[in-house]
Structures are given as structure tokens and as C-alpha cells.
Amino acid sequence: MLNKQQIETFKNDGILILENFFSEEEVVAWRKQALAYHDYPITDDDWRAAIRKVNSNAFKLIDEPTPYTHPKMQALYESLAAGIIWNGENELVARAPEMHREWLGARTPHLDFPVYDSIRTLVNSVFYLADVDPYGGPFMYWPGSHLDSWEYFKESPKDYMSQGDLSQDQIFERITSRVSREVQSFSGKAGDLMLWHSLILHSASVNKSNSARLAVIGRWGNMLKNGETRFDFNKSIWDEWKFNGQDLPVLQ
């Protein structure tokens, strides 16, 4: 499904954005489900109260798009790591409108360590259920930082999953000090899909729009066998991957 150029972009940047990946019909149906789950908030205060009240981890979309249930996502993930039996889950992350807050850009860069799951996360996803502009609470990321993370953990493997003496914040700060590229934001239309390597530094941001930011974030990988480590950082960062790019026009 992906061509060789797109796979090289993903390998170099750790990010790949596919516009209009999900159909309008799918996104409209999922947005209705998300609004109903939050009991149809209207005002900023309504949204803040609704987000505090519900458990985002408990929400599941009907016809949920995953690499093992959604045909288009299945083909997409097969292009990146052929033969993997994908596991993981989606999480609906809503951000209330905060039009009067100061825009500070990205917050503190971090990684998502799958502490409570026996899973080796590889390629994660994020898409929006409504359009998100550059100041509307977009997902922020540092392109290429997956390579910096890998090199850091190669030198200090115990710091992955915070198994050593350093806290997560200290680890993320040390990786951030190595990053040379500027932070970017994933803003776009409802239904645009962004893939991101699980070792990409990323961050939340303030939603200064007049409507809630509704993002579906998926974390995907393969299950670990008994006693298996998540990564051997002495190997290539792509050791667990099997790319299957085709000489096709660029997929939008």
C-alpha cells in the first residue's frame, strides 16, 4: 500500500502523514459516538467537566479502526512490518477548548513506555474526528527523534522503560538534548492519519480553538514471548520490521 518513497520518509522522519485516509462517513459516525460518550458538551466548561468525568480508556469505537480489523489499516501496516500479528489499542483523547490560554507550543517532550502491556510497540497512529488547526491542540512531534532515542538507549539500555536509576523525566531530557530538528505539529482534516514510530519524542499542546479537539491515538506492536526483551539496542532500529514498499504513486 505504501511506496518506497513513503517508507524512506517514515524511516528518516519516524512520521508519515496520509491525508483523507478514513472516509467522511467513517469519521462522521465515530465523531457522533465520541460526542455521545461525553454527553454532548456545548460550552468550554461542559467539555472540561465531561473529560474529567469519563474514562478515555473505557471508550471503544464501533467498527474500531485497528491494524487487525480495518482492511485499509491492515494493508498499511503490512507495508511497514509484514507478517506481524498486531496488538494494541486505541484511546480517545479529548482536549477542551481553551481560547483564552496562552499558546506555548509543545510541552515537555516524552515517549510512551508500555509499562503495563506485554507488547513491543513499533508504529503508533493518531487521527482526528474534527479538523484541527495549528493552534487547536495538535499532536506535536520531533521528526527524526526516533533515531536519537535508539542511539541513547543503545548507550544506556536500562533507561528504556526506566529500569535504571534515572526517572522518566531525566531520560526524556537527555534524549531531547540530542535532537537537532525543530518540533512540528500534526494539524489537518478529520480523517487524516499520522503514523509515528514508538520512539518519537512527542508532546501535547493547548487547544485555542472554539471546539474540542478529538484525537484517537493508537499504540501498536507485537506481543512479547516469555522472557523476551522489548528491544536489542545493539541491533538495527529496524530489526523487528519487514518493509514491503512498492513502486507506486505516492499514497495521499
Which secondary structure elements does this structure contain, and how are they paired or packed?
Blueprint (H helix, E strand, L loop, with lengths): L3 H10 L1 E4 L5 H14 L6 H10 L17 H10 L6 E9 L23 E3 L1 E6 L10 E3 L3 H11 L12 H9 L7 E3 L6 E5 L4 E2 L9 E11 L29
Antiparallel strand pairs: 1-7, 2-9, 3-9, 4-7, 4-9, 5-6, 5-8
How would you characterize the overall build of this protein?
By secondary structure, the chain is α+β, with helices and mostly antiparallel strands. The protein has one domain (4-222): q2cbj1_9rhob like domain (Jelly Rolls). It contains 6 helices and 9 strands; from the N terminus they run H-E-H-H-H-E-E-E-E-H-H-E-E-E-E. Strands 1, 2, 3, 4, 7 and 9 form a 6-stranded antiparallel sheet that branches. Strands 6-5-8 form a 3-stranded antiparallel sheet, with no helix packed on it. The termini are close together. The model is unreliable at 247-252 (pLDDT under 50).
Structural class: alpha+beta
| Quaternary organization | single chain
**Low-confidence spans:** 247-252
Q: Based on the structure given, which CATH architecture is correct?
A: Sandwich
CA-based shape: globular
Largest sheet features: 6 strands, antiparallel
Residue share in β-strands: 15-25%
DSSP helical segment count: 6
Q: State the CATH class.
A: Mainly Beta
Q: Calculate the terminal CA-CA distance, rounded to whole Å.
A: 11 Å
Fill in the CATH topology: Jelly Rolls
Q: What is the CATH superfamily?
A: q2cbj1_9rhob like domain
Q: What portion of residues is helical?
A: 25-40%
Encode the helix/strand succession as letters: HEHHHEEEEHHEEEE
The count of strands amounts to 9
Based on CA atoms alone, the radius of gyration comes out at 18 Å
How many discrete domains?
A: 1
Overall pLDDT metric? 93
